[in-house]
Design a protein that fits this description.
- Strands 1-5-4-3-2 form a 5-stranded mixed β-sheet.
- Helices cover 35% and strands 33% of the residues.
- A hairpin with a 3-residue loop joins strand 4 and strand 5.
- It is of the alpha+beta class and 112 residues long.
- The protein has 3 helices and 5 strands; from the N terminus they run βααββββα.
- The longest helix has 17 residues.
């Protein structure tokens, strides 16, 4: 069974605000995850953030952006939050936003 990448509505809206080159980078990393699976894609494309929360790493002419995602049952990767990164570390508020969106999906405990 192949992996899929889904984007929640709020993250889709955030993704559309990014410059075109960063959107293209997002699509490239998403294709890598679908083609090879998350176990075989690592740095510099993705890295773990907090428990089951991972980030897709995007760089463009105008800066750096991140897409926070989790793996769900059925080999689905769900993108929860997309943002422009302005500090060296991922902001706690961005992580909290992703966890809150994860909780609203409802069927799995994010900390299990």
């Amino acid at each position: 069974m192949a992996w899929t990448v889904e984007v929640v509505a709020e993250a889709e809206a955030e993704l559309r605000t990014l410059p075109a080159d960063m959107q293209a980078r997002f699509l490239r990393v998403a294709r890598l995850l679908v083609e090879f699976g998350p176990q075989r894609v690592g740095m510099p494309h993705v890295r773990p953030i907090d428990g089951k929360l991972w980030e897709m790493r995007m760089r463009g002419r105008d800066g750096i952006a991140r897409a926070l995602y989790v793996a769900r049952t059925g080999q689905r990767l769900v993108v929860l939050h997309v943002f422009v990164k302005k500090t060296e570390s991922t902001p706690r508020a961005a992580i909290a936003t992703a966890w809150e969106r994860w909780r609203r999906l409802g069927d799995e405990d994010p900390n299990a």
